[in-house]
Amino acid sequence: MKLDNVFKKTRQTEHNPKENTSGPGRPEVPEGLLRKCNKCGKAIITEDVERGYYICPKCGGYFRVPAYQRIEMLADEGSFVEWDAGLQSSNPMGYKGYEEKKRALREKTGLSEAVVTGEISIKGQRTVIGVCDGRFLMASMGEAVGEKITLAVERATREGLPVILFACSGGARMQEGIVSLMQMAKTSAALKRHSDAGLLYISVLTDPTTGGVTASFAMLGDVILAEPQALIGFAGPRVIEQTIRQKLPKGFQRAEFLLEHGFLDGIVERPKLRDTLYEILRLHEKSELQPEESPDPETAVPEKAQETKTAWDRVQISRRKDRPVGSDYIRELFGGFVELHGDRRFGDDPAIVGGIAWFHGRPVTVIAQEKGNDTKENIRRNFGMPGPEGYRKALRLMKQAEKFHRPVICLVDTPGAFCGIGAEERGQGEAIAENLYEMSALKVPILSVIIGEGGSGGALAMATSDEVWILENSVYSILSPEGFASILWKDSTRAKEASEVMKMTAEHLYEGNIVEKVFSEPDHLTVETLPYVTEPLEKEIGAFLARYEALSEEALLEHRYNRFRML
User: Fold this and answer.
1) What's the CA gap between 38 and 480, in Å, rounded?
2) How confident is the model over 227-249, as pLDDT tens digits?
3) Above 70 in pLDDT, residue 145?
4) How large a percentage of the chain has pLDDT more than 70?
5) Helices 3-14 & 67-74, crossing angle to 10 degrees?
6) Which end of the chain is more exposed for a tag (fewer CB within 10 A), N or C?
7) What DSSP letter does each residue of 74-138 carry, written as one string?
8) How many Cβ atoms from other residues are within 10 Å of residue 307's Cβ?
9) How far is CA 7 from its chain centroid?
């Protein structure tokens, strides 16, 4: 189907301006030229809105985008091929007036149903696409919508292609009853097979995404994105208010609310969406990489500087406020980092930053415990002490890396897992235990680098790895020296003495086979002097990947098991 013809048809039918603005002394305004923004109430020129990503030029509010125009915004010119264009729903309940309603909507919108599916290219990256169009019965999911999405996902699975679905829906289609409900299971089952084939699914949530669509294909993406201020929820706000007889808080069920509560990977402004989708597709593109040369084993471990500092000195250095944090290492070592958010259960913990990035031409998953660079950031990131949602986010990203055969690189820097009432209520111990359990058998290489403090199980939950490396002035221990002294000696003021007893320095850890490599530091490690550390670290990461990606899955898991079995 040629897009130009479709655009002309939809543009002729989609605008229904308010009453004519002409009057005495006013020039006649052609129909459809002006319309009123339903957010700010100001008059806007229709063509300006269409050229400007369907965003109000006065207030920045988002209008809903017709399906074919959405595809036009994303697709390389001439690349869209529509699938199953003529597929239509039946009337399984014999609902009175339903056929007439659909017939009128087909004539008005130029759509056969509420979703358009097919294949496009985004900057050369092939992908299957499905776009819901709210002009057709509020894009409710009936038999035809479910069938078109399922057929598209099945074809993507056969052809080894990623899938991008744009959700915009009022939920299940009431006029089709239980048949509509079954589409939730059908689309979800098709996406499970697509996932089991190791293929990428990106879900983009637009305003509104509610009901049975939210409770099925919309929330099943490997990556879930949303547009700003999109309404997203299972039950609609009106239904909730009528049920609980309470006024909902401002911003409830908006995209920003879901990001805060761990259900989205990110919110992307519409003009940036094409580039963002391209980067995510490119990071998941299958390619054959040439293995990097592994350095001579005799020189693989950097020489350690002569011991001149006490254990307590090193504890203090590891805690310096100007010491580089995880995000600094990500910027220095990796390219094109795409941060992913949320544990999909409760929240997005700022104490852990994770996502996908490039390292020497290969995609990797990078996860860092993050303290922040100033007081404001320290507080926001809870001084690098993750809660259970932080560890669950880290594990979600690790399992995603396993699906797409990406190595995992963890940057460890925490005084320990956060101990608080909420953390205990949400299962802090269970979250850490689950990480240890799953990481022990993760089927991709895992490297952990302790860049600051490595405190207790909170550090181990990101260091159950094939190898653990440490910086010269970093520490790794069962507990903080203060906690150790408090528990064993009932006197936390003896922390300095405890640090000497605990064998927590890089030298002790290397001698005890707890870590495989120690990296020397400059006299004062800051962001400015960070390349002194990251240059040799980058070389060794390349060698690590060459060694461990060459192992069979069985050999990799056996090596990791034996590493801890010997301790």
Assistant:
1) 56
2) 999 999 998 888 888 888 888 88
3) yes
4) 91
5) 130
6) C
7) HSPTT--EEESTT-----TT--TTHHHHHHHHHHHHS-SSSEEEEEEEETTEEEEEEEE-TTTGG
8) 12
9) 33
